[in-house]
Amino acid sequence: MYEQTVVLLERATAFTVVCQACSELEQAAEYAGLTAQGTLRLESDVGWTTCPRGHRIRILRAGSARAAEATSPLW
């Protein structure tokens, strides 16, 4: 089980990231096939996305005070 966290810049709302769990499962694969996409509203500091294979990825916004702990019952 991987704990994946992506930190977005303060004004970013959309992102595409490489899933680390997928990249380790298929080390010879092209990164374009191992990506997850998502969005995070400007008002939000914490969010989640899931890659096509079901790996959860935590999203944090840089430069903001988090009102809630950024944890999951999975970790």
What does this structure look like?
- It is a single chain.
- This protein is mainly β and about 80 residues long.
- The chain has one domain.
- Helices cover about 10% and strands about 35% of the residues.
- It has one helix and five strands.
- The chain has one helix at about 20-25, and strands at about 5-10, 15-20, 35-40, 45-50, 55-60.
- It has a three-stranded mixed beta sheet with strand order 1-5-4, with no helix packed on it. Strands 2-3 form a two-stranded antiparallel ribbon.
- Strand 4 and strand 5 form a beta hairpin.
- The chain is elongated, with a radius of gyration of 13 Å.
- The termini are close together.
- The model has no long low-confidence stretch (mean pLDDT about 85).
What is the number of E strands? 5
What number of domains? 1
Task: Quickly give the structural class.
Answer: mainly beta
Backbone CA Rg:
13 Å
Task: Round the mean pLDDT to the nearest integer and report it.
Answer: 84
Share of helix, binned: under 10%
Quickly count the helices.
1
Strand order of the largest sheet: 1-5-4
N-to-C terminal Cα separation, in Å? Answer: 8 Å
Low-confidence stretches: none
Descriptive key words:
about 80 residues, 3-stranded mixed beta sheet, elongated, two-stranded antiparallel ribbon
Quick gist of this model?
With 75 residues, the protein is mostly beta strands. Helix content is 8%, strand content 35%. It has a 3-stranded mixed beta sheet with strand order 1-5-4, with no helix packed on it. It has a two-stranded antiparallel ribbon with strand order 2-3.
